[in-house]
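Q: My hope is that you can spare some time for a protein that puzzles me. Underneath my words sits a plain record pairing an amino acid chain with its backbone structure tokens. Those tokens are not coordinates but codes from a learned vocabulary of shapes. Thank you; the sequence and its tokens follow:
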Amino acid sequence: MKPLLLLVSIFVFCSPCFSMSPPADSNSAGFLPEKNKWEVGLGFNLGYASTRGLIIELNPSLQYFVMDNLSLGGFIHYYRESNLSFISAGPSGTLFIYRDGPLAVVLNQRVRFREYIEPKDLNGAKTVSLTSLAADWKIGGGLSSRGPALRLGVGYRVSLDDKALTHNGDKKEEWIFPSFGIAYYL
């Protein structure tokens, strides 16, 4: 299952033909995810994870549109709960599958490389893939494509090194719903 997930992710992010967005309307207050622009994100997961219950996570990211509708970049992530904490970082990419006015449907892929802070001897997953399908809603901004957007979606997280995702279980994959985020387009 994991090799298939990775192959599908690579195929989707390397194929510009998946962009089904209508042409950008210069009079629209919607998204203009164009080449040579930046996306600054603040990922915020407040939802229910199938392995841990209620979760709250923050992770800032910075991505650059390498082509229309496709941004690539990286992120950093800090997580803490009562007896577990780690920091992770890695590459990320967002593909705009569909956009119309202030709404867009995006596919986001991240690969996390974790370093455990507490406990240091945890034999948990150090490499994790997180794939999310979400809807973006552009907030304000008048006729400009710049400004914030609210992101709401569902995520699927899987261990890539065949180890448990959590310190108190043996699950190697989980669903996250809902997943919230904020993106700022420059």
Notes: The chain has a mean pLDDT of 76. The chain has one domain: 2-185.
